[in-house]
From TrEMBL:
<keyword id="KW-0997">Cell inner membrane</keyword>
<feature type="transmembrane region" description="Helical">
    <location>
        <begin position="71"/>
        <end position="96"/>
    </location>
</feature>
<keyword id="KW-1133">Transmembrane helix</keyword>
<dbReference type="Pfam" id="PF01061">
    <property type="entry name" value="ABC2_membrane"/>
</dbReference>
<dbReference type="GO" id="GO:0005886">
    <property type="term" value="C:plasma membrane"/>
</dbReference>
<dbReference type="GO" id="GO:0140359">
    <property type="term" value="F:ABC-type transporter activity"/>
</dbReference>
<feature type="domain" description="ABC transmembrane type-2">
    <location>
        <begin position="72"/>
        <end position="296"/>
    </location>
</feature>
<keyword id="KW-0812">Transmembrane</keyword>
<dbReference type="InterPro" id="IPR013525">
    <property type="entry name" value="ABC2_TM"/>
</dbReference>
<feature type="transmembrane region" description="Helical">
    <location>
        <begin position="102"/>
        <end position="119"/>
    </location>
</feature>
<feature type="region of interest" description="Disordered">
    <location>
        <begin position="1"/>
        <end position="28"/>
    </location>
</feature>
<keyword id="KW-0472">Membrane</keyword>
<protein>
    <recommendedName>
        <fullName>Transport permease protein</fullName>
    </recommendedName>
</protein>
<dbReference type="InterPro" id="IPR047817">
    <property type="entry name" value="ABC2_TM_bact-type"/>
</dbReference>
<keyword id="KW-0813">Transport</keyword>
<keyword id="KW-1003">Cell membrane</keyword>
<feature type="transmembrane region" description="Helical">
    <location>
        <begin position="156"/>
        <end position="176"/>
    </location>
</feature>
Amino acid sequence: MIESQPLLDTQTPSEHGPTGQEPSGEAQQPHLVIRASSGWAALDLKQIWLYRDLLMTLASRDVKLRYRQTALGVVWVILQPLVAAGIFSFVFGTVAGFPSEGVPYIVFAYAGQLAWNAFSSTVTKSSAVLVANSGLISKVYFPRLVLPLSTVPSTLLDFAVALGMMAVLMVIYGIAPGLGILLLPLWLGLILMLSVGIGLYTSALMVSYRDVQYILPVVTNMLLYASPVAYSASFAISKVPQNLRAYYFLNPLSGLLEAFRWSMIGRGELNWGYIAYSAVFAILIFIGGAFSFKKMERKFADVI
């Protein structure tokens, strides 16, 4: 948001000459000073709310374009995590013999994949959204934050469809969720905050540095295996020395993914200290990403 403030000439009487006399030369005219807003006002959240219809339109377009001219359409939302969970089940469960918290490995891995897909798809889509909509940015005014935020509704739609398959698997294997399922929206919200926050950073960087689009998949794949998606965090830390175990949870996804899977299948134990760290980390990344995005957005139309 831009704030404008009229400023009048404020010379002292001595600067105007003797009292009662007009200063020599032309009289000073009022002038306008335009300053960028600072603090929370800089995010201009009211404008984002006013453009909510555009946000939903962009989200709807994203879903339609993704599954246009595909034979299976939205079924891919189920097949992708299911196939990945099947591979993890065979490699880590059957071949490597990793534990799965007392549930079939396919269910264990699918629960982790469900949360991971919400994170990775949001990061990937939000990172590329500015470059993908470069024509819109250079021609039309709207709050630029709308673009990365528009990736969230489509992620939630994909998540809801894939969650239905999770329910089917739990029925097939006779797994009933506990009261922890009530906390599932909290974990999902924190995962999305973390992913959008990262996406705000990377999308702004990608406008000036296209290298980001090549670096991001590499980092994402590394993070997949460094996070408890295909295995449990308790198993991972049992394989490292006692004095190094806390470092595993420096990755905020470790706590959030474990909490998500605990809510889904009701197995395992949670370290609430690590989860609190992950929650605070996600919130700070989201806020920091939003402010960094707003700081860099004035250059988007010129550079993109």
